[in-house]
Design goal:
about 160 residues; alpha+beta; Aspartate Aminotransferase, domain 1; 4-stranded antiparallel beta sheet; 5 helices
């Protein structure tokens, strides 16, 4: 934190009482990464990697779950998937979990109770080919949640390019 001189001493004293300070070794390592340029290199590399993973998941969702809509900007480590009409967040999240896919419901994160049902999907931990498979599994989960007990043949079959 950058603070004016008249406030710096009070902030240091308050911080020392709150948590005994920051870990010196961690701060020294981060300072070295920043100074050497390695941190900037790492950020550029990870941005490319995360963008490729996001693109793979978005492509899979477009292919296997065309009635759902991806929202938000093309950055970060999560995306928002608006569910098709008639699909409830809790049902979709439960169906996804039953298939081994972890998602978060949006409703608990909303400031107001209004908004379309949606899920938050993280994509940073899986390589692109696994995200393609996860998109298909999620499509099966969402379609099972749309109409429990109904035939699941609505998932489009993958066709070779």
């Amino acid at each position: 934190m950058a603070a004016p001189p008249w406030l710096a001493h009070a902030l240091r004293a308050g911080r020392a009482h709150a948590d005994l300070g920051s870990p010196v070794l961690d701060q020294a390592a981060l300072a070295q990464l920043i100074t050497s340029g390695a941190y900037d290199h790492h950020l550029r590399r990870m941005r490319r990697r995360y963008r490729a993973r996001r693109d793979a998941l978005v492509h899979a969702l477009d292919q296997w779950l065309p009635a759902a809509r991806v929202r938000g900007i093309s950055a970060g480590v999560h995306l928002l998937l608006e569910l098709p009409p008639g699909c409830q967040e809790a049902d979709a999240a439960a169906a996804a979990a039953a298939r081994g896919i972890a998602v978060d419901q949006v409703a608990p994160m909303r400031a107001t109770p209004r908004g379309p049902p949606a899920l938050v999907l993280g994509y940073t931990r899986l390589p692109e080919h696994h995200l393609t498979d996860a998109g298909q599994l999620l499509a099966h989960a969402v379609q099972a949640a749309e109409a429990p007990g109904r035939d699941r043949q609505r998932v489009r079959r993958h066709s070779a390019p």
